[in-house]
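queue> holo job accepted (flavin mononucleotide)
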Amino acid sequence: MSDVVQVAGEVIAIRRVGAYQHLTIVAPGVAEAARPGQFVALAVGGPTSANLLRRCFSLHKVSPSGAYGGTLDVVIAAKGPGTQWLAGLRAHDKVDVVAPLGRPFPIPTEPVACVLVGGGYGSAPLFWLADVLRERGCHVEMVLGAASEDRLFGVVEARRSADGVTVTTDDGSAGRRGWVSDVLPEIITRTSAAVVYGCGPMGMLRSITEVATAHGAVAQVAVEESMACGVGVCMTCVMPVRGKDGTTRMVRSCVEGPVFRGDRVRWEAFTDGVCRVPADTVGAPRAGGH
Amino acid sequence: MSDVVQVAGEVIAIRRVGAYQHLTIVAPGVAEAARPGQFVALAVGGPTSANLLRRCFSLHKVSPSGAYGGTLDVVIAAKGPGTQWLAGLRAHDKVDVVAPLGRPFPIPTEPVACVLVGGGYGSAPLFWLADVLRERGCHVEMVLGAASEDRLFGVVEARRSADGVTVTTDDGSAGRRGWVSDVLPEIITRTSAAVVYGCGPMGMLRSITEVATAHGAVAQVAVEESMACGVGVCMTCVMPVRGKDGTTRMVRSCVEGPVFRGDRVRWEAFTDGVCRVPADTVGAPRAGGH
Amino acid sequence: MADLTTRLGTLTLPNPVMTASGCAANGRELHRFFDVSELGAFVTKTVMADPRSGRPTPRMAETPSGMLNSIGLQGPGIGAFLDKDLTWLKSVGARVLVSIAGNTAVEFAQVARDLVAHPAFDAVVGVEVNISCPNVANRGLVFACDPMSSAKVVSLVREELPRDFPMFAKLTPDVTDIVAIADAAVRAGAGGLTMINTLLGIAIDTDRMRPQLAAVTGGLSGPAVRPVAVRAIWQCTAAMRENRIDAVPIIGVGGVRSGLDALELLAAGASAVQVGTATFNDPSAPRRVLTELESALDERGFASLTDVVGLAHDRKVTL
Amino acid sequence: MADLTTRLGTLTLPNPVMTASGCAANGRELHRFFDVSELGAFVTKTVMADPRSGRPTPRMAETPSGMLNSIGLQGPGIGAFLDKDLTWLKSVGARVLVSIAGNTAVEFAQVARDLVAHPAFDAVVGVEVNISCPNVANRGLVFACDPMSSAKVVSLVREELPRDFPMFAKLTPDVTDIVAIADAAVRAGAGGLTMINTLLGIAIDTDRMRPQLAAVTGGLSGPAVRPVAVRAIWQCTAAMRENRIDAVPIIGVGGVRSGLDALELLAAGASAVQVGTATFNDPSAPRRVLTELESALDERGFASLTDVVGLAHDRKVTL
Ligand SMILES: Cc1cc2nc3c(=O)[nH]c(=O)nc-3n(C[C@H](O)[C@H](O)[C@H](O)COP(=O)(O)OP(=O)(O)OC[C@H]3O[C@@H](n4cnc5c(N)ncnc54)[C@H](O)[C@@H]3O)c2cc1C
Ligand SMILES: Cc1cc2nc3c(=O)[nH]c(=O)nc-3n(C[C@H](O)[C@H](O)[C@H](O)COP(=O)(O)OP(=O)(O)OC[C@H]3O[C@@H](n4cnc5c(N)ncnc54)[C@H](O)[C@@H]3O)c2cc1C
Ligand SMILES: Cc1cc2nc3c(=O)[nH]c(=O)nc-3n(C[C@H](O)[C@H](O)[C@H](O)COP(=O)(O)O)c2cc1C
Ligand SMILES: Cc1cc2nc3c(=O)[nH]c(=O)nc-3n(C[C@H](O)[C@H](O)[C@H](O)COP(=O)(O)O)c2cc1C
Ligand code: FES
Ligand code: FES
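queue> job finished
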């Protein structure tokens, strides 16, 4: 956790891609240290902003230098005030950047087969990951899933970056109707994949983990917990994760994650938008609670 | 207080003029009802703004229709967060407009001589006022004063709108070195002016009133009190003013002003950035206060 | 379209959105922007027995997502209020909630008596007793900071009003235990509670290096304080649901700027909401909040406003 | 360049800017953005005797110009804190203000005892006693809501610390009379006060129609609450200047985002300031505030930080 930079970024391009906005931001110093799976924390709203907290986005890609100095790309779904503000930026607008943050996807030392699964904008970091894996000689399959066609991101890019691409949508508007977990078993089996990488909503990551584990593959998932700071100082982004010692702790997903081994995450603690503290967690409240 | 409109305005031009920013905003419905001396209240900071209160500016000019529909012009000195945000707007940015507000400068029924005195951006509403007065056959002299040349506004416009123009600056960087009150006696005497109109800082308005009164002219001054709403509902913009009945009340400068007869204002209540409630004001606190 | 009717004890209103006292003057100014009779009720600026000049200026300071004010209850006194302001509000068909105060408990009662005696009283749908103001008899301590003083004012005003006439005690959040104050007010006869008034705050002018307000302290309001308002409403509602205090309707106020903000206060337990400081940002705010609230209910499939009042207590996650 | 040295009773610091407890973890994370030893002091996350998992998530909600948090004092327990965190802070040369708490008054004392006994204690310049946390023995009522509980904790901790060792009691603003709590803490042996901790608040998720935080209530912080912090500092300083309570130094905290915000708290009476929530917006905030404060003093012609402490009281307008 050392090579992070904070820099006054400048938007140089913003374009709509399906339901998303794709931003390119000049942010010198980020690309050199960044790895796939890491993220950026952006300040929102400018100097008069009432929205203090940073918004976090997976790094889609980075380039160490170009006509404008190093750049980074993010893919943003406009939801609340912060993402709406970001989606409304124009070229030359300023945005404060803190990046790269968090632990990247671990890269296998051997050239094994891998499946990369992205839900909605969750695919954003996977093309760069695919490139890195293929450089290492890995066979790479991608699965892109979304509610509907406009919420898929990067189908064309996927065909360039991966050896095989499968698309699913909940409503069947593109690819196969259904969920990524419907197609995953067949792909793992066919490619004898050793690692399944996932990025997307929590429910999807849980099922990816289950499928991968059931088929003898390791799941590496990038989680999306609500974050206030992104840099490890606020303790809002915690989730229960088993350590190597088997003990569960409430760990910060911004510094110890966002990428976790799927089988270490205590998925059963997440229900209905709440994550409870499992009773066997270190320091869990005893009767009376805290 | 009836013909006010609230409308989503759009900036169509913004340009620097000396130390100020001159904004032209499309705001249909404002021009028709507006008179010189009235003002506009602008919301600042956009949808994520932490600055809730409106910022008020004299209407510099209005045009009922043009290529874009009715427009209004304001001249803004960037000081705090709100005026800085406004000064940073670009063409096609949106700004919520409430206008026209307040009581305009009263126009004499006879074609008398008038002196119009503006301090800094306080001259902004005076050119339009001069045009209206000259249409009525009044002889119009203008006095523009400021700390330094870059803080003068509209010297060229003044030469077009007035029969005579005098410029003063504190540092002598343009026109005569000194204050507007230094030159005012001679102009009132020479023109036998019946009315002196003033717009600018409080201290200047007070001395304009004193000079005018001493020379047998009526002072009509547009004051600048700190305003939260601009529309008469918050009671923050009050000042002690004598009514026709001779009684002093704390009146709202946004609805009963901003233009007051200078000799009605209890200037002695203003000291060192505070305005006390004179003891003879209606409802003034008795011992113990409230 | 959801049924927006709300019931506040003996009072039924066509919708739950009101102005907040002191943030809408007495109606004429906002009537230029929307028809004030369309609101559930129009809440007037707190009025006292005599005319008051209010405090010296500066009286306000902008703060992050809020403001401080030290208006000092400037107003014309109850007599002029009744003849001019209330009479005008009646003429446009507004339902009026009249906010009253006094320097002493007895003065509150006197103001209430004058109100009831006036011909325009039939436009009045309720009285809001602003006990969040200084008690001259008790070293200027705010009435609502002390359960006994609160109870005294409420019971004296109660005696002046017709039986069962809607009466709301307006509480300050600047207390260690707001439920205790609510309890005292309700026991003394308040048929409902309005919460919250402003929080005591200070801002310093860093150029002059002195307080920005001439009066030093002011009341903090605006979206900044909304979480405190929601919490106060929640705490009193929870106490009522658990029968720790008698159940009465709550009017929520504090930081409402949008229909969703209003929905927050309602879900926490308020049966109506007032829009205050947001009106300075947008003079149409009270009317706009009503429209937005209506859409918010429709989008969420609620057939009636009453379905959402206190709903967050039922949906609270059990841990 | 102004002399930024500040004196807090027996403690002298090269400058008045600190982190706020719980908003800077225990140093490593921010050390990536600036050298934490450059701050006047580094205030650690409140530590208790045993490890604590903290509360379920969601633990935070963004609010206008602020946020709510319900972290629940997650932490490693005093043992691990001392061996890992304090030892690291010592290794980089930080001046450390250690924030401690307990479920009971006795647990506070126990934590203090462990701290004093540790080899890294020489990096500790003071102890901040976070009495704004729930007292398990008193139905979970926050210690700092009650003068007696506050005094008990303070006096027990005092006994564990070396004579005259700097000790600050951290107060909550959620009380009717903060001066009374300050008085109790000072009489019990607090050498100074830190104010304010967060305000109790709630936010409702209007899609789920339930509280946004799993724990329902949370602490409100950020620029939104700055006027409340300035007011609390002002009131206690005024009471000290008028000899109503004993004079001790105050560390100001609440809503500081810029050097001018810090100057507000100093002018109101604080001798040092902590930067909390603003750090989430800008991880360099504590260090930036220091630079900005230095410029602000220079621009205003103050030769020394001590010249501005409490200055707004002297410059207050007399009406
Ligand atoms: C590691 C990581 C990578 C992400 N990558 C992407 C991406 O590539 N593209 C994309 O569109 N979104 C991504 N998200 C989600 C994105 O951060 C949220 O959608 C965004 O913060 C919501 O901001 P808002 O203003 O729309 O919502 P608001 O609800 O107003 O946000 C309020 C606060 O909650 C936090 N918050 C709310 N939702 C989330 C969330 N889902 N995750 C984290 N914090 C949240 C915000 O950071 C902010 O502090 C990612 C989140 C994480 C943690
Ligand atoms: C009737 C009227 C006409 C004005 N005409 C002009 C003009 O033509 N050009 C121009 O540059 N300025 C004009 N002003 C002053 C202008 O309104 C303030 O400079 C501006 O509001 C300051 O905003 P800020 O964000 O820079 O400062 P901040 O200090 O951040 O403002 C905070 C709050 O204080 C209020 N405020 C602060 N200073 C003033 C002030 N001097 N007058 C009124 N409210 C204030 C703001 O409205 C806002 O609510 C006029 C003021 C009034 C009352
Ligand atoms: C300028 C101003 C004046 C106010 N005057 C009064 C008043 O006279 N009586 C009263 O009960 N509340 C008064 N209040 C408090 C508001 O009615 C309301 O309780 C508080 O501002 C919180 O709501 P808000 O955040 O929507 O403004 C005033 C508030 C402001 C901002
Ligand atoms: C996420 C978070 C965690 C906090 N944890 C603690 C804590 O452990 N101990 C403590 O005394 N205060 C804690 N606080 C309160 C802060 O130290 C500070 O008093 C308060 O947030 C006001 O300052 P601010 O507005 O600068 O954040 C916490 C605040 C936040 C936002
Ligand atoms: S987001 Fe702040 S610790 Fe992870
Ligand atoms: S500015 Fe609100 S009443 Fe004048």
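queue> Chain C touches chain B through 48 residues (CB under 8 Å).
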